[in-house]
């Protein structure tokens, strides 16, 4: 009898207690870090810290491998099965926003005032996503190469002009020490092409699309500046400076083993290169006529329209964008932290850090890829045009065909809401 | 008497019902998509557009170009003696005088006219698709007999009573089992233009007389390289099919042929080959179907290039539908493929039908 | 006299084995490359791959890549998932497709020609064409589970199995094979009063070793190498199969050694299954015949 009353009492007390401390609302989050031990560790750390810091919300994480992430999220969206928080690659975001998968970010923009421009995902004037880091591209070279060939070291304020750049490539080619003067990374088919090579086009004065209206590519992709770019691009290959088709293994190891004099590569490879090559220097992009340009925008966090607790999701995103986490990511994966204050906390981007130059590059020269839901088509068409030109196709015709395809796609989709 | 509708339907129904639900029904959906402007993800509802996806894929046109002449009416020629023609751009872009060929690109051309000075150009709205069609047909025509023949030779070779022959058979099947990732990685190394194994081998055999070739980087050799790799990868699979057919041939027939002193060739022609009839039909149909579906090798090795020399129908369908988000265009290509292969297989079945005396 | 005969026989035997072995070398080299590379550190394997060293276990050889692969991805889980999905599909497919093949090849019934044509027509449809409609369907299909009626098949095993049980190729394989089996066997069995089921089960299937093995290995390969479909319908790690897991290894700085280790590990079940099929179903070559 006593035993029963005791248990009944215990039962009552525990139910009372649990109803007071109501269960935290669970929010689901998808991230692209499966298989990446460093990123996964940091994301898990942020989530654990957030869960412990407040009782209202718990974040549950599902990881996806990066290569398959976009396709997986799109399929899930089609099937109506999205989580609360997702991360999205910068140029892909407008497409998802337009299709109604991502909601405008329920955070005041002023919170991110000191963030690098490339980390803010803004479309049609509304911010949809925010990034914890940005990625940049630079020209890798060895100081010893520059000295041997008698080349001036370009700086952010005084980059190489087109002529100086071609002279450098000529010198490298003439020296006979390298299989190819320039490693462009043509082995990395896919998003690398628009990300890494459209800056060259922009530096000539052209662009992938006319950004004033986002309704056509005419004049931008096939105007005189673009044709000049196309011919310069084709000359890189017909002149023997770079390879049109490249083996993946060569891309990974070629610069380190001295096969290439210069390498056009992102700062995610910088840490690895620093370990293998003693005197590597990261040079700014050459100014091909219209200013130096590099790409911008990497992965960013956003809230989905399927979420029933956008305010909770916003809390998490605000929490995750604190400087200490920006610094943690940067130290871990080598990419640029979004704020200068976070940069000061990192080992690579603080004053005198090995990759400090990238922060300056991103701030000064970065131009995001075209912000339009039609980007999926623009990217693919641009990639093919570049590959065809590299293989010897007629420049003007190829660019015309690319413009026609982009324009037709935009028309077919009613201008993409721009 | 084998007439039995109840059993007939009963046995076939489970499998057939599954196929209708999970293959045929979705395919009708895909046909529906091809008649709309459905984009993979979009806030706009799909609109019915009729056959416009198909006309966009298949439209062709033509134009006759006259050579450029200078003030005296003499034909202008380039340094190499080639006739200079006005650029096609002038006619096909924003030129209201030529409404039928707006937006088209050159497909192929030839010289014509009294002195061969005119150029007749055949244009197409979607040149890449046309090239994909041609490449796929070439691939099928080359691969089908070659692969079937090689597989048959291997099967005959394997079909002998030797110790350890099973091990060899397992090994010949290996390429089918190994992941396309490894196969692509390796064959890219083999075909590498500078230091590839194939170039090294050819150079060694010919004492440096044969120059290294960029197999995957040149339009002239890229398709051939893919063909070689595809045959290598799939021949073991068809060898196994031939083998199972070979084993339905009674050994007494072989003994009878042996007793009558038949040569190897005669045995093959009069004993083996007739017994392989059904298997031959099977192998040929399967190879043709698979050849039309060429995708994975192109996707990992060449991405359709260089200069569209390895474009295939399925590659275009997937790039359109998933890469460029144009699911309606991708579906239209798939429906066209379906119609093409259906016609061909009907012709094949007609040609190989059993002739009743 | 006898001595030279024996010698020339030996020579012929040697030549036969030589030819077989040379051809075998052509077919086996990727497997050798994969296994050898899995034992080397990534940087070295990339450099080696330009020469014959790629096929030799030279340099810094160890099992490190294997341990690292297990760290990076739940390899055991993925293999178990794939085996479960593949095994179930193969068994179900062998059963239902051989039934249908038997029905088409041996029985006569109205509508048979139409059904066969429809089945063959599906051979021309690449999977990617029907993937999106199938996805939309799968998110709405009903299922009677433990808790009663549920809607939607996403994130399950059944969505990776059921749509693939019946396929045109397997049915066609059985149809052609059954057509080759002499009709007198069937007629004899029917004369003895056997039902069609008994004819199928006791007469046709026991004679079908080779085609069962062929159909089984083909189906196994297709199911085991599935990538696009699981990607689309499964968002939870617990249900992912091996090829989706492969993507875990392709990062911005891909560790090729681990990739090779992972691929070596996931190839093992396929090889085992293939060898099992050879022994169980395909009797020693050129020994049995069906006719006579």
Per-chain topology:
The complex is a heterotrimer of chains A (418), B (357) and C (292).
Chain A: H1 2-20, E1 25-34, H2 37-53, E2 57-65, H3 66-78, E3 85-89, H4 93-98, E4 102-103, E5 120-123, E6 126-131, E7 133-134, E8 137-142, H5 143-149, H6 162-175, E9 180-183, H7 192-204, H8 224-238, H9 248-253, E10 260-266, H10 270-276, E11 280-283, E12 294-295, E13 299-304, H11 310-320, H12 323-333, E14 336-337, H13 340-345, H14 356-365, E15 366-367, H15 375-390, H16 395-412
Parallel strand pairs in A: 1-2, 1-3, 9-10, 12-15
Antiparallel strand pairs in A: 3-13, 4-13, 5-6, 6-13, 7-14, 8-10, 8-11
Helix pairs in contact in A: 2-12, 7-8, 15-16
Chain B: H1 5-34, H2 52-58, E1 60-65, H3 89-92, E2 105-112, E3 118-124, H4 127-158, H5 165-177, H6 180-191, H7 197-205, H8 219-246, H9 251-259, H10 264-275, H11 277-292, H12 296-301, H13 313-323, H14 327-351
Antiparallel strand pairs in B: 1-3, 2-3
Chain C: H1 2-38, H2 42-48, H3 64-72, H4 75-106, H5 112-121, H6 127-138, E1 142-145, E2 148-151, H7 158-161, H8 168-180, H9 183-191, H10 196-204, H11 209-224, H12 228-233, H13 242-246, H14 256-281
Antiparallel strand pairs in C: 1-2
Helix pairs in contact in C: 1-14, 3-14, 4-8, 4-11, 8-11, 9-10, 11-14
Descriptive overview:
The complex is a heterotrimer of chains A (418), B (357) and C (292). Chain A is an alpha/beta fold and 418 residues long. Chain A is built from 16 helices and 15 strands. Chain A has helices spanning 2-20, 37-53, 66-78, 93-98, 143-149, 162-175, 192-204, 224-238, 248-253, 270-276, 310-320, 323-333, 340-345, 356-365, 375-390, 395-412, and strands at 25-34, 57-65, 85-89, 102-103, 120-123, 126-131, 133-134, 137-142, 180-183, 260-266, 280-283, 294-295, 299-304, 336-337, 366-367. In chain A, a hairpin with a 2-residue loop joins strand 5 and strand 6 (126-131). In chain A, helix 2 runs antiparallel to helix 12. Chain A starts with a helix and ends in a 6-residue tail after the last helix. The model of chain A is unreliable at 1-20 (pLDDT under 50). Chain B contains 14 helices and three strands. Chain B has a three-stranded antiparallel β-sheet. In chain B, a hairpin with a 5-residue loop joins strand 2 (105-112) and strand 3 (118-124). Chain B is globular, with a radius of gyration of 26 Å. Chain C has 292 residues and is an all-alpha fold. In chain C, helix 1 crosses helix 14 and helix 3 (64-72) crosses helix 14. Chains in contact: A-B, A-C, B-C.
């Amino acid at each position: 009898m006593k035993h029963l009353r005791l248990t009944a009492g215990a039962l009552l007390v525990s139910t009372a207690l649990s109803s007071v401390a109501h269960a935290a609302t669970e929010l689901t989050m998808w991230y692209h870090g499966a298989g990446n031990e460093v990123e996964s560790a940091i994301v898990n750390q942020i989530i654990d810290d957030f869960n412990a810091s407040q009782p209202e919300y718990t974040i549950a994480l599902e990881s996806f491998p990066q290569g398959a992430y976009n396709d997986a999220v799109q399929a899930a969206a089609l099937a109506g099965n999205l989580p609360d928080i997702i991360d999205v690659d910068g140029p892909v975001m407008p497409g998802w926003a337009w299709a109604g998968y991502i909601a405008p970010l329920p955070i005041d923009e002023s919170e991110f005032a000191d963030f690098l421009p490339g980390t803010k995902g803004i479309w049609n004037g509304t911010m949809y996503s925010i990034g914890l880091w940005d990625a940049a591209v630079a020209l890798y070279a060895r100081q010893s190469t520059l000295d041997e060939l008698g080349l001036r070291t370009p700086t952010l304020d005084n980059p190489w002009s087109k002529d100086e750049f071609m002279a450098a490539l000529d010198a490298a080619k003439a020296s006979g020490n390298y299989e190819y003067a320039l490693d462009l990374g043509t082995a990395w088919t896919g998003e690398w092409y628009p990300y890494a090579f459209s800056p060259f086009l922009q530096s000539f004065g052209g662009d992938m699309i006319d950004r004033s209206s986002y309704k056509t590519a005419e004049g931008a992709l096939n105007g005189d500046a673009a044709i000049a770019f196309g011919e310069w691009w084709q000359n890189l290959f017909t002149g023997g400076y770079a390879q049109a088709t490249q083996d993946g293994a060569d891309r990974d190891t070629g610069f380190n083993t001295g096969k290439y004099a210069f390498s056009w590569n992102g700062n995610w490879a910088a840490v690895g290169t620093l370990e293998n090559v003693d005197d590597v220097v990261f040079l700014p992009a050459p100014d091909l006529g219209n200013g130096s340009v590099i790409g911008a925008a990497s992965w960013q966090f956003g809230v989905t329209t399927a979420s029933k607790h956008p305010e909770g999701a916003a809390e998490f995103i605000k929490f995750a964008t604190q400087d200490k986490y920006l610094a943690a990511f940067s130290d871990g994966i080598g990419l640029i932290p979004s704020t200068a204050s976070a940069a000061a906390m990192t080992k690579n981007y603080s004053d005198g850090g090995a990759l400090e130059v990238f922060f300056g590059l991103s701030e000064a020269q970065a131009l995001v890829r075209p912000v339009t839901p039609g980007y999926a088509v623009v990217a693919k068409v641009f990639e093919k045009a570049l590959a065809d030109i590299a293989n010897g196709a007629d420049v003007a015709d190829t660019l015309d065909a690319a413009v026609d395809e982009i324009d037709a796609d935009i028309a077919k989709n009613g201008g993409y809401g721009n | 008497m084998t007439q039995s509708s109840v059993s007939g339907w009963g046995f076939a129904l489970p499998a057939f019902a599954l196929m209708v639900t999970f293959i045929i029904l979705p395919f009708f959906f895909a046909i529906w998509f091809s008649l709309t402007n459905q984009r993979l993800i979009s806030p706009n509802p799909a609109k019915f557009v009729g056959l416009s996806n198909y006309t966009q894929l298949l439209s062709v046109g033509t134009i006759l170009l006259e050579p450029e002449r200078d003030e005296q009416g003499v034909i202008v020629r380039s340094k190499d003696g080639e006739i200079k023609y006005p650029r096609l751009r002038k006619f096909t872009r924003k030129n209201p005088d030529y409404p039928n060929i707006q937006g088209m690109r050159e497909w192929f051309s030839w010289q014509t006219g009294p002195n061969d000075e005119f150029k007749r150009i055949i244009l197409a709205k979607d040149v890449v698709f046309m090239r994909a069609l041609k490449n796929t047909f070439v691939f099928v025509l080359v691969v089908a007999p070659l692969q079937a023949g090689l597989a048959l030779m291997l099967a005959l070779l394997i079909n002998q009573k030797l110790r350890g022959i099973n091990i060899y058979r397992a090994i010949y099947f290996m390429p089918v089992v190994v992941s396309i990732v490894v196969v692509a990685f390796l064959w890219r190394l083999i075909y590498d233009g500078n230091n590839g194994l194939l170039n090294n081998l050819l150079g060694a055999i010919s004492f440096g007389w044969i120059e290294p070739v960029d197999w995957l980087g040149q339009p002239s050799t890229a398709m051939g390289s893919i063909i070689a790799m595809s045959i290598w990868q799939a021949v073991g699979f068809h060898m196994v099919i031939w083998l199972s057919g070979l084993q339905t041939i009674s050994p007494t027939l072989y003994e009878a042929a042996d007793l009558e002193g038949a040569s190897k060739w005669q045995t093959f022609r009069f004993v083996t080959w007739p017994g392989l009839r059904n298997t031959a039909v099977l192998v040929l149909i399967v190879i043709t179907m698979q050849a039309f579906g060429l995708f994975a090798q192109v996707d990992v090795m060449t991405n359709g290039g260089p200069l569209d020399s390895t474009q295939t129908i399925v590659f275009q369908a997937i790039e359109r539908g998933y890469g460029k988000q144009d699911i309606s265009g991708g579906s239209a290509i798939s429906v066209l493929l379906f119609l093409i292969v259906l016609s061909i297989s009907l012709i094949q079945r007609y040609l190989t039908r059993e002739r009743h005396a | 006299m006898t001595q030279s005969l024996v010698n020339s026989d030996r020579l012929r035997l040697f030549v036969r084995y030589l030819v077989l072995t040379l051809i075998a070398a052509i077919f086996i080299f990727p497997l050798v490359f994969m296994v050898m590379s899995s034992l080397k550190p990534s940087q070295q394997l990339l450099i080696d791959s330009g020469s014959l060293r790629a096929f030799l276990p030279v340099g810094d050889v160890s099992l490190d890549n294997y341990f690292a692969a297990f760290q990076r991805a739940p390899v055991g889980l993925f293999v178990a998932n794939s085996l479960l999905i593949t095994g179930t599909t193969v068994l179900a497919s062998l059963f239902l497709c051989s039934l249908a093949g038997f029905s088409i090849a041996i029985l006569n019934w109205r509508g048979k020609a139409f059904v066969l044509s429809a089945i063959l027509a599906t051979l021309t449809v690449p999977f990617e064409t029907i993937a999106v409609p199938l996805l939309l369907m799968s998110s709405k299909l009903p299922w009677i589970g433990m808790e009663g009626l549920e809607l939607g098949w996403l994130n399950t095993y059944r969505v990776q199995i059921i749509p693939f049980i019946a396929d045109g190729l397997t049915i066609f394989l059985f149809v052609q094979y059954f057509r080759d089996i002499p009709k007198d066997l069937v007629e004899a069995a029917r004369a003895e009063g056997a039902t069609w089921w008994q004819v199928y089960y006791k007469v046709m299937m026991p004679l079908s070793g080779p085609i069962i093995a062929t159909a089984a290995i083909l189906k196994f390969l297709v199911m085991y190498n599935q990538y696009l479909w699981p990607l689309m319908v499964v968002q939870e790690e617990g249900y992912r199969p091996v090829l989706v897991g492969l993507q875990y290894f392709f990062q911005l700085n891909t560790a090729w050694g681990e990739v090779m280790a992972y691929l070596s590990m996931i190839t093992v079940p396929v090889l085992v299954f293939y060898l099992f099929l050879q022994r169980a179903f395909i009797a020693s070559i050129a020994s049995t015949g069906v006719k006579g």
